[in-house]
Write a structure and sequence with these properties.
With 279 residues, the chain is α/β, with parallel strands linked by helices. The chain is 35% helix and 26% strand.
Amino acid sequence: MTVKIITDSLSDITSDIAKDLGITIVPVYVRFGEKVYRDRIEITTDEFYYRLTHDSTWPTTTQPTPYDFAEIYKKIAKESDEMLVITLSNKLSGTYESAVHAKTLVETKCRIEVIDSLTVVMGLGLIVIAAAKAAQSGASLDELIQLVNGAMPRSHAVMCFDTLKYLAKGGRIGKAQGLLGSLLSVNPILTMKNGEVSPLTRVRSRAAGMKYLYDFVTGFPNIEELAVEHATTPDEADDLIGRLSKVFPRERIYRSTVSPVIGTYTGPNVLSVSVLEAI
């Protein structure tokens, strides 16, 4: 029986990929005032980013509850007796704790394992995709746990911002705090390190930021999986994919959008690349 793979919506895995690989996605919540939405289910990315830039109400976010995960566990337990849950970094959200706590709410003999990926966006997504492909090929739960733990240090997500104000206001700025005093014209480049947002560098223009992302990807001698994401700038994403297709097959580059929950902290003009290094 195939091990079922579960992740949260901050993996930025598209619905098509999730369907093809049998991945279950648990939505995180985004709130505008008193109204709460399930990420990408009750609010689309386009709707969210429009409201982010036009609405006077500042959005906030909330992790899925243990009961959200428990309902998923109960449903999947009817199809499989083993599940692997891979969540975004515990240092960014309480989603991991909810997933673990949910195990105590389910009366089943099904084996459920939960892993904190220490990353987010398609840095998480590529790990989940690798696990789902292995699960479809018949890998056992223990083999999948070993695969995920081995993939985590090989997964790298880098994001180019045009402002840090969203990250700072949302309280998720982590070790990038030192960049807050930068000039407005500076574009910060951030990554994930040990589960936290961490600064890499800063560049003087958007074009320089895109070049940095390109150079970052092409600096890896061997790439297993590659993803490009944007929030509201699809042309930039397409341009970057076009450039990267000279060094990595275009048809194998995952193209995604940064989720509303992540967008609460990145703002509307984030551009991101994620690399899963080959062994």
